[in-house]
User: Fold this.
Amino acid sequence: MMNIDLKKQTRVIKENLFSSPVSTLLTFLTSYIMISFFRGMFGFATAPDKDWLSVLNNMQLYMVQAYPESDFIRIWICVGLGFIFSGLSVGLWETGEKTSLSKLCLTFSKIIFGIIFLTLIAPTTSVIVSTATGIREQVDVFSYAERIPLLSILLGLLVVFFLLSKINLNFNKSFLVSIYLFVPIVFLWLMKIPTIKLDAENQRVFPDPLMPIANSTKIPWTLIWMSFVAAYLIGIYFKNKKQFKTAVSISWVLLPLLIFSWIFKKPLIDLNELIRNDIPVFIGFLLVGVLTIYFINNKIVEKFYGYYLGLLVIVTLASLFLKVILLVKAGLLLLLLFSVIIPAVSTSAKGKRSLTIVWIVSLTTTAFLLEGGTSTTQIVVPGSSIFGGFSLTWLLAIFGTYVSFPLGVLLALGRNSSLPIIKGVCTGIIELVRSVPYITWLFFASVTMAVFLPDGVEFNLIVRVLIVTAFFSGAYFAENIRGGLQSIPKGQFEAADAIGMNTVQKTSLIVLPQALRAIVPTLVSSIITGFKDSSLVTIIGLFDFLTIGRMVIGNQSIPINFIGHDRENLLFIALVYWIFTFTLSRRSMKFEKRLGLGER
Amino acid sequence: MSIIEAKDVKKWFGDFQALKGISMEIQEGEVLVVCGPSGSGKSTFIRCINRLEQHQEGSIIVDGIELTNDIKNIEAIRSEVGMVFQSFNLFPHLTVLQNITLAPIWVRKKSKSDSEVKAMELLERVGIPEQAHKFPGQLSGGQQQRVAIARALAMEPKIMLFDEPTSALDPEMIKEVLDVMKELAKSGMTMIVVTHEMGFAKEVADRVMLFDDGLMVEENTPNEFFDNPKNDRTKLFLSQIL
Ligand SMILES: Nc1ncnc2c1ncn2[C@@H]1O[C@H](COP(=O)(O)OP(=O)(O)OP(=O)(O)O)[C@@H](O)[C@H]1O
Ligand SMILES: [Mg+2]
Assistant:
């Protein structure tokens, strides 16, 4: 078995790398360049004038900036929820592909081989440049003797994996995610990373160089990992339950909203007002909506539909100018929107049922957003808006995609619509948003937007940034998606027409699935761009991941002097960005392959 | 009572008149073959019957419903009339089975399991039950066209329209599709077939029509049409094609 593999590998290497003199030359040349690059980087990283403590010590700052420690539990819960739902989804939507322990061991062995190779070729000297005199000086960094412990550990691991690979064990491929997530957890338990803390007077102190930061994170992360695995198993168990899948999908839509308000707000709920005003209003709207859904196609009621709609329009318009609670205005608008689409969809029992679900979900979401989103109490963070660091970057990236993608789909469909008003509005939005630079929009968010908002509605700066980001990337998504829509042959529309599908069915079952499939690569690159561009928010005073490393840590002098150590931090930041974007693009390639099944 | 009745149908594309007044009737269970040179308006005419194109003058009545701009009428007619295209037009992102069950589930609002049972019966009928879980891209042209026929039949239409169903196929595959169509014709389906397969016309057609330049120049029984055509244009056409 091993033998055949080896032979095959050799053949593959021969065919791909040394097939002709030119390719042999190229192989050597690129290997040389890559090895030199690695040696340079390694030399840079290990030079004695680099202080990697400046990265390790500041992990907390990197992750959440100044978010109050007493409220960390909120963040942990959010992260945990994210992982639990990911686990559920991985289990529910797994394809049933199998893999084996020996294959997994092979993967790990390959990685270890790579590390051994790098350890062997790493340079023994490095260069430091004195800042005072500018003189370059060679120093010894990583002697061969020092490598022996590392190499022996690696070789030991190789042996372990070799022995493990003898065990004949098959498991679902989707379980690999749990295993891969386990690797960093192991590191958390093993590594000792000192950290900076705030003392009682809010002074930055460096309590104990050997106190591992992992002490405060390893237990939560381990718990989260365990809940992930548990959720995965639950997902597998309920794999064939359709309702369960629907519930999880809906939760995915709601989850970010929950997380959002959970991180930002400490709602002071006025129970009295809630019971007197909001809950009755909510229930009232709920009932009216459901009644409309179920009775609108009744013969007698149908006659009055026109009057009902007219009345609703008038009441909604009036409410906008009257002094009623916000929930009434929003609820009326939503009801109006629904009443327009109800007759077309609620013709069958199935349509009625799904429409009811959509109604309940959107009403709940609206109510929740209005209550949570406008609550004036929020988490107080000394000297900055809520938080920064990786959480902010991540939040901008996720929310940017999460809101802008559906927005982009709607704008694209609207722009292709045959109704002139809708077409005009959508085209207008897209062109307006795209023709102004993102940075301008950020300034708009930070200084101008408040003027446009109605009285009494105030959004946090981050929320405002999220709104402009959603529109900005939404407009780009829309143009990408429009390209996808245009790539669909006319015959597809005709075939759908010929079997009697209506416009909604045609769009959602035939057109969009194909259009989105066609542009997955472009969409992923937009998402990646959005992720990286989020660092532009530094311009309006938010502290994203990059800014923390460059501006904050580079200026730290208490309790340890890190001034001038921003290069290490930049390297670290680059590495983190790379890990995320690389994973994303690899996942999307796999995804494309899976989708490509239908094409040829 | 005739199931399709067209009266003096005229159709323009901009300034260009593609149909110059077509009148015809077809009875339930009849098989009508339409032939004619390229660009004579054959496709345009049968596409008018399920409103993929709109005629501007004249009237078309399908199964007692007149074709107007009323969306409800159009959808009603489209679910009575199945259509098979020259280029198959299967949905590439759905499996064969999903292609066939799509319309029954979403348009006819039938349950998924019933539709799948029905779809398997139809695949059996067109001779490719073993391909149910493949994607269209993995099938040969002839197989794809048979799936397209099954997809149209899944709506249980009263009328089937075929627009040159075999002209994008290799000769070996033409037979398998024609066989399915012959079986369908014998089962009593009302069919309008645009084709240049004269063998098919001779064997199963009740009537054959010749279109030329937007007009119907000859309408005849197959025997008369091939052996004893009335019109010079028909003779010319037959001499070119046979
Ligand atoms: N969408 C359109 N816009 C403009 N002209 C059209 C359009 N569709 C068809 N035509 C014209 O109408 C005429 C009739 O076309 P039609 O497709 O009906 O011909 P046909 O008899 O089916 O020919 P073929 O055997 O080549 O399929 C042709 O001259 C064609 O150029
Ligand atoms: Mg044609």
Observations:
- Chain B has a mean pLDDT of 91.
